[in-house]
Specification:
- This protein has 3 helices and no strands.
- By secondary structure, it is mostly helical.
- Helix 1 (7-25) packs across helix 2.
- The relative contact order is 0.18.
- Residues 14-52 form the HTH tetR-type domain.
- It holds the Pfam family TetR_N.
- GO terms for molecular function: DNA binding.
Length: 53
């Protein structure tokens, strides 16, 4: 798998796209699956990678 040269761009994309499910469903009803589905192409693993602690 190719390494992403611009991880900050991916993080921005995730944050922008993830906002909608949170607005529509709220914090308690938004799942990782909702966010990943909205991203269209990124995997759950990619999301975790960019937001690991």
């Amino acid at each position: 798998m190719a390494r992403n040269k611009y991880p900050e761009t991916t993080v921005e994309k995730i944050l922008d796209v993830a906002e909608r499910p949170f607005v529509e469903r709220g914090n308690e009803h938004t799942t990782m699956a909702d966010i990943v589905e909205s991203l269209g192409g990124l995997t759950k693993g990619a999301v975790h990678h960019h937001f690991k602690r």
